[in-house]
Structures are given as structure tokens and as C-alpha cells.
Amino acid sequence: MKGKALKYIVILATVSIVGVFLVQFAFIRSSYNLSEKQFQESASVALKEVAWQIMLATGTTEKFDSITPVEVISNNTYLVNVGVPIDRELLKQNLITQLKKHDIYTTFEFAIYNPIEEQMDETILIQNNENKDTSNYASPVDENYTDNDPILIQNNEYEDASDYIFPVNENYSDYFGIHFPDRSSYFFSQLSIWYFLTALLVLVIFFFSYTLWVIFRQRQLSEIQKNFINNLTHELKTPISSIALAAKVINEEKILNSPNRLFDYTHIIQEQTIRLSNNVEKVLNLASIEKSRIHLNLEEIELNEFLHKASDHFKESKAGQNGGLTIVTAQTSCKIMADRFHFSNLVSNILENAAKYCDKKPDIKVEILKNNKTYELNFIDNGIGISREHRKKIFKKFYRVPTGDVHNVKGFGLG
């Protein structure tokens, strides 16, 4: 799939999901507002019925039409004007009954206005049972209630209730206030399906984002693989071409008359064969590492002697012929346990990179520092270095620091 087509598909898919999410959010908000309205209407009807029942018990129902029974203070606070003295137990029983009747199963607290003290009496907090099937529950105010019956309500005194302060209305003589401190259970029951759909949508968005990450990751790996194949082809083709050219010249009879020229071409063949062998070895090592079959043949290595030999090999290579290399070894013998082949590749890769990635004459210094029972091997050079943003990626397979359109340094990104 081409880059532009994938880009457009990702944009369209993102816009579609964002649109669905916005529609979902609008539906939830609309449903929440509808639930708010429904709660307020149900509570108002239930409280009007409570006021009627209290008036009916005192034989003063004729006053009902001349008063405004329910005053909505806020979404969760109401004042109910009764106009007659209110019995606390009768009020509590009617509140429980009428709120259950109108499917309001949430905690509420109420207080009765005291005309003598001109303030609200103590607050009583009532915890409604959230189970709508309450036929098997009894109430402490029921005539047939016993200590063994399951309790429908839990009464708490003022210190156990909330610190909510009920408002006072000077136009009312006998009234009570009711407050719903926690309506979350009510709204959860009303909006549970929308919460579920929202969670499902979030899950879809998560998997969509993960899928996009996988797609872009695969494209990146495909691009890296393509660059690796191109670099590998070049790195293998160059020594093969050099060997073929040198072999063609050697096959000419006239070359026997020029021994020095013959020696130069045999040296070219030897050098390019080593280069070709090293490139093949890198690919084989990569395959071994991927299959977790790499095996280290540890042996005792004298570090001073090893570095001097590595320095000699580096100076004979093409990368080391134009630069300077200084080895600062330790005064005493430094013996370590290492795999000679892999340790040699490690050192040679660092030295070659120090020379290749230098925009002036390479000046490389290698020093050994002893730290207690360990040795520290430092490589110091005057190269261009690696910027901080790319350092964390240097151990990624095939990764090479981007250089724009400049490709003057060849490699696989495996060193």
C-alpha cells in the first residue's frame, strides 16, 4: 500500500472514530439531562404524595389545593410545605414508601422545621435498599416487625449524617426538607447501558490505535529491510567486482613481465576476499543471534597484547590508513575472560566507526583504566559523534543514524 493511500485511510478512520465518540458523548449527555429531569419529576410527584398522606392522616386535605406542596431548591434539595404539624415517624414511613413507589432507590436525608425554635430539627439519614425487590424486607416502624426481620432502612443520628444545612423558608409554617446527597446509584441504573457502550467504544479505540501502531511498525521494518538488502547488495557486489577485475588482469600473460603489478593485484584479491568474508560473517552472526544459538567460547585474553594486535590490523585496513591511533595500556598484565572472535569484532567495529564517521583526519585514542578488580576500556575520538536523541536507538538492529541524502558511509547497522 502506498504511503499516501495509507495516510488517507488513517485520517478517515480517525475522523470516523472521533465522530462516533462525539455522538456517543452527546447521547450520554442527553441521557444524563433526561435522567436529571426524570428524577426531579419523580421526586416532586412522590413528595406531593407524601404531603397528601400527611394531610390525610390529620384530616386537613382541604388545604392541599391552596398551597404549593413542593419547592425545588436544587436538583437534589426540596422543601415540602404541609401546613400542619408533622409526625416524624409518619413522615419517615411515607417517604420510604412513596420514593420506592416512584423507583427512587438512593440515600436521602430529611429534617422537619421547628416553628418554636425557627430552625430545622435534627437530620435523619436513610439508606434505601438498592434492591428493587423489597417484598421480603420489613421496617422498624411496621407493627409486625421483629428483631429477626431483614432491615430495609438504616437510621443514623445527626453526627452520622452529612453536614448539609437545610434552607429555611419564612413563608412556610410547617414543612420539611429532603436532600439526596448521593444520586450516583440512581443515575448509574438509568445510564448503565450507555456506560457499557462507552467502555466498549474506548476498547475499540484502543485496538484501533494498536492496529495503527502495528501497521506503521511493519512499514518501518519493511523499509529497514529494504535498505539492509540494498546495502548488503552493494557491500557484496563491490568486493566481488574488485576480485573479478583483478583476476581478469592476472589471467593476461603480459602480467608475468611485471611482478610488482602482479603482487598488487594479488594483494587486492586478498584484501577484498577478507572484506567479503567479513560481510558474510556479519550476516551469519545475525542469523545465529536471532535464533538464540550464539555460543561464547570464553578464554583468557591478555588485554594489552590484544589491543596492540587489533591496532596493527586496524592500521592495515582502508579505514585506518589515513588516521592516527594511540594505545595507552596498563602498566601491569591485564587478563580478562572473553570470546576472542566477538571481542575482536567489537573493538574493530568501534575503531572503524571512529574513522569512518569523522569529517577530518581521525585521531583515535584507546586507554585501559583499572578500577578495583575490573578494567575499563575507553575509546576517544574526534569524530562527529551521535546526537542524544539517537543514542538510545544504537542497539536496534539495522538502525543507522539518518544523514539525509548523504550516503558516503556504507554499512548494515549491525555493528
Description:
With 415 residues, this protein is of the alpha+beta class. The protein contains seven helices and twelve strands. It has helices spanning 3-58, 88-101, 184-250, 259-290, 303-316, 340-356, 388-391; strands at 70-74, 77-81, 107-114, 119-120, 124-126, 155-156, 175-182, 298-302, 324-328, 335-339, 363-371, 374-380. The strands form three sheets. Strands 1, 2, 3, 4, 5, 6 and 7 form a seven-stranded antiparallel sheet that branches. Strands 9-11-12 form a three-stranded mixed sheet, with helices on one face. A two-stranded antiparallel sheet has the order 8-10. α1 runs antiparallel to α3 (184-250). Residues 131-160 have low confidence and may be disordered.
